[in-house]
Structures are given as C-alpha cells and as structure tokens.
Design goal:
Blueprint (H helix, E strand, L loop, with lengths): L14 H24 L2 H14 L5 E5 L5 H5 L7 E6 L2 H13 L6 E5 L12 E7 L8 H11 E12 L7 H20 L5 H11 L4 H10 L2 E8 L4 E7 L1
Parallel strand pairs: 1-2, 1-4, 2-3, 4-5
Antiparallel strand pairs: 5-7, 6-7
Helix pairs in contact: 1-4, 6-7
Length: about 240
Amino acid sequence: MSGKITPYNDTSRSKKEQVAEMFDTISQNYDGLNRVISFGIDVKWRKKVVNIVSNTKPERVLDIATGTGDLAINLAQSKAKEIIGLDISAGMLEVGKQKIKAKNLDTVISMVQADSENLPYEDNYFDAITVAFGVRNFEHLEKGLAEIYRVLKPGGVFVVLETSIPTKTPYKQGYKFYSSYILPTIGKLFSKDKSAYSYLSESAAAFPYGEAFNNILKKIGFIEVQDAPQTLGVATIYTATK
C-alpha cells in the first residue's frame, strides 16, 4: 500500500510527519491549485458526499483529513448540530478556520488537529464520518479505518471520496499521462514544494481502489459496502455502515 510512498523519502521520519509538513507547506495554495488540477469537478463530487450524509439526518459529523475544510463547510447543509473537521496539518486547519469564520459557521464547525489513527473521541460517538482525498495519506490504512469504525455509531454512515484509476481504454492511458506528468508540473509551477504534487499522484496510483478497498472495509467490520466510480473512474465514492 502507499505506506512506502512518502512526500520526501526521508527514512528518519514517519509518513505522517512528512505528510503534515507537506500540507503545512502547500496550505496557502492548496484550494486554488486543487480547482485547477481537477478542473473544478471535485466540487461536484463533494456535493454527492454531502447528499449521502444529509439523507441520514446526522447530529454529529466527523470529517477526517478535512484539510482547509471544504467538505466540512459543505456538510453544514446536512443541518448537523456538530461538525468536526480533523486534520494532522496545522497549516491547512488555519486556512480552514478563516474560511469557516468568514461564513459564520464557527458555532457549528470545529477544526481539530489530531492523528486519524488515534482519534480523541469515545466509542460510537458520530452519526456520520467522511474522508475526502485523505485515506491514501494514512500511514497505516487498516489502523485508521479501525479507528473510524470505533467512533462511528452502529447504523452510522461512513463515506470516502478518493482518487481511483480508470479501467477502460483510452481513459486509463490518459489518466496515467495526466497524473504522471501534467499534475506534478502544475504543482511545481504553483507550489513552493516541488515534492508535494509528485507524492499526491504517486500515492493515488498506489491506493487499493474499487473492490480492493471494499474488501479492506469489510475486513475491518463495515457492512453495506458499496463503491460508485465518478467521472470515468478518476475518483470513487465509497459508502459503508456499522
């Protein structure tokens, strides 16, 4: 899995330490660059995640790897009383806090710096948990998923939005060229961190998407596991319950 792929190939530091540094470094440019790289389609994908969560009428929602809070902010539409955006990067959270305050959502949304593999919440605490483009950054994927399972209430929904690889020709070849050459080049042009967007494309390619990820979720104990490929398969929305 992507545990061997790290942003800086620094064997003296853990993956999570390197990921935190990477996102701290690119935090100021992250939102704008994301829109460019995804052609804005990621906004549409997040809306689908919000609709899935909203249909369950949750009171407490946890958005893991929240980054600058885009999904947490959108989840306010679910009318949840409490939304927590959790991330390991202080830099990303700071940008998110400014966005949340500007939208007057700081009474609903809290931004928390914590490790997704050691969640600071009691068992069966959340009605819904989401992760958008973050599970591939977990240092120990199954450990992080087990923590999510622990803090999710029985009957609660878990929704993951993550990159995947198209399986049909010519989309598979086109995606490989874009992610291997175009994405890192754009990242280098706009970001101070030349390694960051190379890592993001490499970790996406190494992630066990589709049925492979479904099987990992089932192994952890999740039920009603489903995957829905998005936009020719360049991303996938996974849903599961406890």
